[in-house]
Amino acid sequence: MSVHAPVAALRVANEAFLVSSMIERCPKTMMIRELVVNAIEAASSADIDKRVDITAAEIEGVSKLCIRNAGRGLSAKELDRICDLASSLYKENSLDANFGMGAKVASLPSNKHGLRYRSCKDGVVSEVIMCQRDGVYGRLRRGDNPDGSSIEVVDATDTCRAEGGYDLARDWTEVVLFGQAAAQNTVIDPYAGNPRMEPDWLLSNLLLRFFRTAPDVTVQLWPQIIGGGTPLPLQTLNDLVRLAAQSEIVETASGIRIHYRYDPEAGDSPRAAIGAGRPGSLGAIVYKNEIYDPRVGKTWVLDAPTYGIPFGAKFCSVFVELPDDYLVRPEAYRQFLRFRGGDQRQVFLQDFGQLVMVYLPAWLKEVIRSHGPQQARFVGEVEDELRDLLSELQVSPEFKPPAPPKPPEAQASPPPAPPAAGPDAEKPPVTAKPPAPPPAPPKPNFERPPEIISLDAEELIEERGLKGRAAKFYPSSHQLFVNLQYPAVQAIAAQLEAEFEAALNPERMRLMAKTVAGWAITRRVARALVYSLAKKAAGWPAEDVRRAQSPETFSLVADDWSSMIEPARLRMQEDLGEDWQSSDALLAGALAQAA
Domain coordinates of the chain in residue numbers? Predict the structure, then answer.
């Protein structure tokens, strides 16, 4: 840099500390992403047979994970160079492209014993081992040159010939993960038990990271990884759309593409689909072909009402694919996205919840309805009562129901012009227009009542996470789910059965008592929700309002069921009508006779 430059560049005072801190802070689980991305990028440089092989290498009788690409090879000098942090070949160093340090930084914390790179260029194989020794990360020294300098990159051509299985007639590069110790099997235990991984960890990791891979590159998984007798190509979530019973891609006005899928045979877990397998349901953001913030399994099912999928979520998948020029950027280690500008907060799938609801296809809405429960008769009545209460409390509207996207406006033809009047045409008489009536005062606008969804099936209660909870409110979809199996409902029903047992036969009485008990709890919880909505205008902070709308708060409200007995008793008498009156008269006569 010129001595006349306006700024003196910063230097690193403690280089070893900076290197170690960058490596140690990187999330371990980003290792496979970084290694596979590097391999795919390298393989794309090949003239033919652009391939990445994920297999295993036997090192002293122990299986070690091996990732090999058939791209342009590296000379000894080039291989030495790329081992430095923030160093790369044939790639751009930028915040939006490749940092040149991802694979090394992400892999070394879990491979302190060694990370072996081999690369074949023009028939010569160069080898370097990166590792940590005595607390220092770097290249393993393999000997000394005559001038006293250390040897870090060695010629492994003869070694590869002796081992067999290598094609020295063409270029390639491979990396082998030695792990933390010589005895560690990095194929099944890549992190030495911290964290502990499932047997199919690699397939799941690839499935939940790569929505699609480069169209001209094949990623092959070998039998040492997946079993069987032959290697199979990686099937990404984009490839697996063929397994869905129905799917649709909707493009929004901002260029976001939303992938909707329905697969009634989807499993409960999003495991990789190899051969005849299939993934489970999930939701995720897709950016530049990679998956961020995946919501899988029970997490996805619990969150699904936020995206307009209250039922059947375990069979439905949603992917929000952002255009390449969207105002987001991966954070340093590619673990998640951040918005550009402002506070650069993390991007979550729920940021697009309203958008997903707006564009839900009609066929998917019908699927969702088909998986939903039949609603209790009293739900509409309670919602009407809430509407009056919202008006009484003057709760300002905040929830905006998603509106369907507007179709392109048709070009209306202008009305035909009236025929030109001739000189002798009779002119119409001029009449005075009556004065326009004064405009009606605008009607007051208040918050709409939430949609109440009562759940009585154990499966649906479990799906919504309401086991042991009375109710759950989803502000984004303005839906209140009520658990009709909650103990307070059963307690009220039992007392009503005991008090009114003479009015009906036991089966009809049991059904009516449960219905009235469900009405009582639903009404109490829903009114509590309305009062919480009114607290924002009273100055409550948003966090306090959210706490007041928690499932725990609704459960405490429902637990005071004794205060609901009298309204439930009156409702029971009203519903029984003549049956109650006749049984009441019979009971009074029996008591008089006994006296």
Answer: 22-233, 241-371, 392-396+446-594
